[in-house]
Every structure is written in structure tokens, then in C-alpha cells.
Design brief:
- This protein is α/β, with parallel strands linked by helices.
- Among the domains are: 80 residues, Up-down Bundle (dopa decarboxylase, N-terminal domain); 247 residues, Aspartate Aminotransferase, domain 2, CATH 3.40.640; 104 residues, Aspartate Aminotransferase, domain 1 (Alpha-Beta Complex), CATH 3.90.1150.10.
- Helix 13 crosses helix 14.
- Helix content is 39%, strand content 12%.
- It has a 7-stranded mixed β-sheet with strand order 1-7-6-5-4-2-3, with helices on both faces.
- The chain is built from 17 helices and 16 strands.
Length: 641
């Protein structure tokens, strides 16, 4: 591609980007694909020969766009805003065109100096103390652009660690650094971003995560108590990370209270993470949220979140740049130059050596919108959040779960976490909106954030209509499920009652059947069951019954087996459908007036089974009893068939 074709293709690309942003509403917010979708659509190897540009752009639309989550979509309300604007895009375009790698002043003086100037501009607009500004007379501080807030937290923790080790080495010169490192303890709130925990892992230091108050705010008494406890255990506090505008609920730690309390610990580094909320401090009415910043050693915010600047652009300021750079200096000969003592080399301010010309896009944005234009943009997003909060409060089924100060609203359906999980998953699966959850005071909530640059009140109303429609559907289904569950429980309970009644009825028939009571089960009865085998073998069963004792035969059969009160024989012949068996019932003529029989089949006149020799040997239930016990009616000759 030569410059002539680049002009043509560049014009086409600008047109494509404009059309994309103007028609975003026609697309799903989130893609409807599964992991690995793209691998099956692209070849296994790069093409050997060049391909036409038209084919490449067609694949962008046909294969790439179906898998894109559209962060600039007016229905995207997850996370925080992803900064985007035409001046920022053009700034990145120019940076890419210049293509310099500004790791030092000598590598690209303009790249270094513009970054210093723009960071001072933004720091003044936010309201940072003069000690954080590089160009203020007598200041040792300054600002730098990092990739993300995670990198800002990491480099400040590394600087704090180096400072602590240096201080401890002076006190204990003969102790190994590895042992001193094992004693270092960092602190943050449970509401702090996960990047603090990751930074502690990379830095090989301990991290104590503290409980905030009911408003998700870290308080000084909680922090100081933890630090004193750790000191008693021989540990050494060295780093505290506070948050202004937490990710979960946009809560604010009490920075002024914490900063004042930490004056008792002069060697502890106090960092302030304001990745989202810090941008709002350019508005005079919101600067009160920055109270206590004079105690901080470092501060970061992300213009690529809420200042219309494309990623990556995370800004970090430190009060003393020497404390930062001394922890990260590596100075080989091939990187040295003649102006090292009089110029800033940003390669000492972070982890990577290579650095893009990122200050260009921030410079473009600040000049194109002005501070007043950026203030209007932030205030508009706050108004949209307040509008959404009002809609939530009007619906008695919902509740707001955070103090809405900026552009984030945390809300939930009143009820269980499960029903809120179901609500969010249903909404996200529809592709109409996209939101994410958070845990506030150990409660599942749904986060709603105004993120689109040109978001309107109609977008908020649409989002609320979608949310309430899904909520109504889920609540109706929940009520139906509850009714069904109640019915099922009643059925189960009724069945259990019936089974219990039957068991009691079988166990004590006289209570439930007056006919049995009146009939007076005889003192003794005898049953005979004969089953002819292939060789004429007969199975004989005899069951005795004595007054006052239970029978091992269930009472319905016992009733049939019973004889009348006058002593006449109750001669009943039964046939079982599933057996080639006949049963004859008759009163026993043996010991009819005496008791002493056992209620179980193991009693005096036990069961004797004589089975066919073809199937098994003779099995006798009672040792020593004969095949035909005394009093048995049946014989082996089949005479009682």
C-alpha cells in the first residue's frame, strides 16, 4: 500500500468508523457467539500471497464484527465508560503515523515534554496539590501516562517496597533483604480493585484486606487497628491503597481521616486510586470528594474511562518522583544520553521500556473540548444516572443499593440474590442491554452505568422499560413456581399422611375398623397354603395367634383367617392370580384355648417350607421341626388341594 492508496483506504476507513458509530443501535450489544467461533472461520496459517483490501474489510464485517462487544453502544451499561471521541482517534492515528518510541527525552523530546505538560494541565484541573506538578518551582513530583490503573498501583507499590527495604536496611544492616521483605504488609479495603491484590502477588508482599463500613467506606480506625495488630506480630506496614469511587458501587474511602491517622506512620506510602471518579474532580462542585489528597504520596485516574480519551491512557502523579524512579532505574550504556540530569526519562517511571506517544490524544481532547466541554459531558452522565435512580425508586419492587454521586447506580429486585441473578442473566442473554453484577455488603446487586458519549434520556427510559419487562416476567414465573411448589408440598404431605394412616391401620386394625373389633379375632387360627410343584411337593404355612399378641400377618389377611365367635370353621379358599397356588383358611384344632404362641413366624409352630428337589434342598425355618408340624392341615400328598 503506497501513500496514494493509503489516502483512499484511509478515507474509506474513516467512513467505515463513522457509519459504525452512527448505526450502533441496529446491532446487538453483545455478540451471540461461543468460545472458538473465529478459529473455524479463519485459515490455520497466514496467507502466503497478499490479499486484496476489499476482501480484508469484508472479513471484518462478516467475521470480526459478529464477535465484538460494542462498548460504545447506547445500550451498553456495564463496567465504566470506555473513553472514545473523534479527536482522540485522530490523536492516536497521528501517534501511530509518527511511530516514535519515547522511552527517554533523547529518544523523542516532544513525546517526553508534551506528556509532562499535559499531565500538569490535567493535574491542575483535577485540583491536585502543587507538589504533584512537575513544572511548579520547587516541586519534586510529576505525572506520567501508564497503560492502566493496575500498572499505576503496581509501580507505586514497588516504589513503596523499595523505600521500606531501604529504611529497614539502615536499621538492620546485617539482615538479608529477603527476610525484611517477608515482614512487609500492605493494606486495602475489601471494596478496592483486584489489581491491588495482584500487585501484592507480583511484589511478593503480604496484603491485608480490611472490612469497610456499611457504606463500603474504609475508615481510619479499622486501618490503624489492623496496622497496630500487625506491628505486634512483628510485621511492618509499608503501603496503603485507598479508593475514591470503588468499582463495585462507586464508594469513597475516608481519605482525609485515613491520611491524618497515617501521620503516625511516616514511612507508610499512601496511594489513592480514583480510576473512574478522579476524572469528575474537574467539576468544582465535586472537588469535595478529593478532600484529604494533601496526605497522599500518589494519585491515579483514567482519562480513558471518563474523559473521552481512547485506551490506553491512565495518568499517575507522585509527590516525589525520585522515590518512584529509584525503585525502577536500570541504566545500561546504550540508553544513556547527555541530558539525563536535566530532563525526564519516562523509562524510569514504569515497567515497560518502550512507550507510545500517548500524550497526543489527551492533548487533542483537552484542546478540542476544553475543560468546560468535559465538565458538561460528566455532568450530563451524572444527570442520566440520577434519572435512572429516580425510576428505580418509583417502582416498589426495586431498591437502590448505593449512594448515587456520579454515573453509577447499583440496584436490585427486592428478594433473593437468586432472582436478581436470573433477572440479569435474562436481560444480558436477550442482547437488548448489557450490565454486570457486583457485591455490596455481601448482597448481589446489578450495576447500571451511563457510558455512551452521546447517551440520551431516551436511552435511560428504554433501559428501564427492558428491565421492568423482564422483572415482571420473572416475578410472574416465580409466583407460579411458588404456587406449584406449595401444591407439590401439599400433595407430598397428603400422601405421607395417607401412608402413615395405612401403616397405623395395618398395625392396629381395631382402632380404625369397628367390624374387626366386634368380630373379636379368635385365640388361635391356622392357615394352610399349599402349592403343588412339578413333582407333587407341597408348601405348608401355619401361623398361630394368641389373645393379646400381635400377628406377623397383616390384619386384612388375619381378618380373613379368623373364625367366628361360635367356633365354627371359617373355611375360605383363596386363589392368587400370580401364583399357581390355592389357600385354605381354617381354625386350628390344636391348643385352641391356650396361649403361649409366638407372634412371629419364628414361634412355636413356625413356617415350614418344603420345596421341590429340582429347585433347592428342603429348607426348614425352625431347626428340629418336622416337614409337617403338629396341627398342620396340609399333607404332602396333595389331599387338601
Amino acid at each position: 500500500m503506497d501513500s496514494k492508496e493509503f489516502r483512499r483506504r484511509g478515507t474509506e476507513m474513516v467512513e467505515y468508523i463513522c457509519n459504525y458509530l452512527e448505526t450502533l443501535e441496529q446491532r446487538r450489544v453483545t455478540p451471540c457467539v461461543e468460545p472458538g467461533y473465529l478459529r473455524h472461520q479463519l485459515p490455520d496459517e497466514a496467507p502466503e500471497e497478499p490479499e486484496p483490501w476489499e476482501k480484508i474489510m469484508q472479513d471484518v464485517e462478516d467475521k470480526i464484527m459478529p464477535g465484538v462487544t460494542h462498548w460504545q453502544h447506547p445500550r451498553f451499561h456495564a463496567y465504566f465508560p470506555s473513553g472514545n471521541s473523534f479527536p482522540s482517534i485522530l490523536g492516536d492515528m497521528l501517534s501511530d503515523g509518527i511511530g516514535c518510541i519515547g522511552f527517554s527525552w533523547a529518544a523523542s523530546p516532544a513525546c517526553t515534554e508534551l506528556e509532562t505538560i499535559v499531565l500538569d494541565w490535567l493535574g491542575k484541573a483535577i485540583g491536585l496539590p502543587d507538589s504533584f506538578l512537575a513544572l511548579k518551582p520547587g516541586s519534586r513530583g510529576g505525572g506520567v501516562i501508564q497503560t492502566s490503573a493496575s500498572e499505576c498501583v503496581l509501580v507505586t507499590m514497588l516504589a513503596a517496597r523499595a523505600q521500606a527495604i531501604k529504611y529497614l536496611k539502615q536499621q538492620h544492616p546485617f539482615v538479608e533483604e529477603g527476610h525484611l521483605l517477608s515482614k512487609l504488609m500492605a493494606y486495602c479495603s475489601k471494596e478496592a480493585h483486584s489489581c491491588v491484590e495482584k500487585a501484592a502477588m507480583i511484589s511478593f508482599v503480604k496484603l491485608r484486606i480490611l472490612e469497610p463500613d456499611e457504606k463500603c467506606c474504609l475508615r481510619a480506625d479499622t486501618l490503624i487497628k489492623a496496622m497496630e495488630e500487625d506491628e505486634q506480630q512483628g510485621l511492618i506496614p509499608f503501603f496503603v491503597s485507598t479508593t475514591l469511587g470503588t468499582t463495585g458501587s462507586c464508594a469513597f474511602d475516608d481519605l482525609a481521616e485515613i491520611g491524618e491517622a497515617l501521620q503516625r506512620f511516616p514511612s507508610v506510602w499512601l496511594h489513592v486510586d480514583a480510576a473512574y471518579a478522579g476524572n469528575a474532580f474537574i467539576c468544582p462542585e465535586l472537588k469535595y470528594l478529593l478532600k484529604g489528597i494533601q496526605y497522599a504520596d500518589s494519585f491515579n485516574t483514567n482519562p480513558n474511562k471518563w474523559l473521552l480519551t481512547n485506551f490506553d491512557c491512565s495518568t499517575l502523579w507522585v509527590r516525589d518522583r525520585i522515590r518512584l524512579t529509584s525503585a525502577l532505574v536500570v541504566d545500561p550504556l546504550y540508553l544513556q544520553h547527555g541530558y539525563t540530569d536535566s530532563a525526564i526519562d519516562y523509562r524510569h517511571w514504569g515497567v515497560p521500556l518502550s512507550r507510545r506517544f500517548r500524550s497526543l490524544k489527551l492533548w487533542f481532547v483537552l484542546r478540542s473540548y476544553g475543560i468546560s466541554g468535559l465538565q458538561a459531558y460528566i455532568r450530563h452522565h451524572i444527570d442520566l444516572a440520577k434519572r435512572f435512580e429516580a425510576l428505580v425508586l418509583k417502582d416498589s419492587r426495586f431498591e437502590v443499593c448505593n449512594d448515587v454521586r456520579l454515573g453509577l447506580v447499583c440496584f436490585r429486585l427486592k428478594g433473593t440474590d437468586r432472582i436478581n441473578e436470573k433477572l440479569l442473566s435474562s436481560i444480558n442473554a436477550s442482547g437488548k442491554l448489557h450490565m454486570v453484577p457486583a457485591s455490596v455488603n455481601d448482597t448481589y446487586v446489578i450495576r447500571f452505568c451511563a457510558v455512551a458519549q452521546n447517551a440520551k434520556a431516551e436511552d435511560i427510559d428504554y433501559a428501564w422499560d427492558v428491565i421492568t419487562d423482564f422483572a415482571s416476567e420473572i416475578l410472574e414465573k416465580e409466583q407460579a413456581d411458588e404456587v406449584s411448589e406449595i401444591v407439590d408440598r401439599r400433595k407430598t404431605h397428603t400422601l405421607a399422611q395417607k401412608r402413615s394412616f395405612f401403616v397405623r391401620m395395618v398395625s392396629d386394625p381395631k382402632i380404625y375398623n369397628p367390624a374387626i373389633n366386634k368380630a373379636q379375632t379368635p385365640h388361635r387360627m391356622s392357615t394352610e397354603l399349599t402349592s403343588p410343584g412339578h413333582d407333587g411337593t407341597v408348601v405348608t404355612v401355619q401361623s398361630p395367634k394368641t389373645p393379646g399378641s400381635a400377628t406377623w400377618i397383616s390384619w386384612p389377611l388375619a381378618f380373613l383367617f379368623a373364625s367366628a365367635d361360635d367356633g365354627t370353621k371359617n373355611d375360605v379358599t383363596l386363589r392368587f392370580r400370580h401364583l399357581d397356588t390355592m389357600m385354605r383358611l381354617s381354625a386350628s384344632r390344636r391348643n385352641s384355648a391356650t396361649g403361649g404362641s409366638s407372634p412371629s413366624p419364628e414361634g412355636e409352630n413356625g413356617i415350614t417350607l418344603l420345596k421341590s428337589p429340582k429347585k433347592s434342598p428342603i429348607l426348614m425355618r425352625k431347626r428340629g421341626s418336622s416337614p409337617n408340624p403338629p396341627g398342620a392341615v396340609g399333607t404332602n400328598n396333595g389331599s387338601n388341594k
